[in-house]
Amino acid sequence: MAYLQTLVSFLALGLPLVSALAFPGAVGFGSVATGGTTPFVVTSIADSGTGTLRDAVSVSGRNITFAVSGYIVLASPLSLSSSTTINGQTAPAPGIGVMAREVSASGKTNIIIRNLRMRQGNMDTDTGKSAFNMGTASNVILDHCSIEYGVFDGIDAVGTVNVTVSNSIIALPIGQQFGAHLETGPATWYRNLWVSAHNRQPLTKANSQYINNVVYNYQAAYTVANTGGLFSHDILNNYFIAGPSTTSAGDDYFQMNANQKVFASGNFLDSNKDGVLNGAAANTVGSAVVLTAPWNSGSTGLATLTAAAAYTSVLANAGASPRDSVDAFVVSTVQSLGKTGTIFTNQASTGLANNGYGTL
């Protein structure tokens, strides 16, 4: 029965048939990622050397677990190998994270990352880097990750094929102040919390599923861009919530031109910044062609929560676990429902410890 359910789900999404999901509960186009199988235990939070995360990802095919917790302060970008699984949920409390440089899966394939905090911030002097880069990669899934303080973007995914970002926090980008930039696809954005970005929440120039996300304190939220090309979008049961930095609540859908085909249903917009979740239906998608049914037959099956239920679930569950001070700050900002929120240029401006990175 389990095999038949997996078979049906992959056929519904139009995905190639594989023997198993990336992990139990994986959804969307990135769920085809196979990751690694060779066990490797990270035993040191040093930047480099034997037993470190950099050592772990230097060889393809590894399935990585953690015997240590805390921040890994990167002195240079952390480049992953193909066929890698990072199981951040195995780290002892309070969990595992990297800070100060980019994590890159550029050009790689079959990457699974779960429960990892990736916080670039202005300790990275290279303003052309992002918190997580998967440009020209394929078969990538990020789940229950916390991605904050991206400089160029929180997530950069130009030319990337088969992507899922699920149950994650993408928040507080500095520099360009952009959430995520994805091109090529297809892509699935599922039950994520997007907070305090100028734009790109996400910018998705791809056939996309955008389901049960919560976006707060945006200046532009779901974006395609006028030069995006011809794509289809299933936008289901998301909640857009204006905050102090929101200058036009109507930019919940941004640059949705006539080249785009959109099925939008069950979405809500709370625009009044009154501290109460009391939005109204928001399914008008600019000049895009309106579809009468999802472009992807699997989208409706993923949209199991209403927008209001997604708000509750995402705020309770998104991001790496256990939740640390940075994610707690992000969530409390959203819970103000219009009263607080800032688009930062420096992580230290949050007032959190450790120059704004918080401590693990």
Automatic annotation (TrEMBL):
InterPro entries per UniProt: Pectin_lyas_fold (IPR012334), Pectin_lyase_fold/virulence (IPR011050), Polysaccharide_Lyase_1 (IPR052063)
MF terms in GO: lyase activity; metal ion binding
UniProt keyword terms in alphabetical order: Glycoprotein, Lyase, Metal-binding, Signal
Annotated signal sequence range: 1-20
Annotated protein name in UniProt: Polysaccharide lyase family 1 protein
Species of origin: Mycena albidolilacea
Upper taxonomic lineage: Eukaryota, Fungi, Dikarya, Basidiomycota, Agaricomycotina
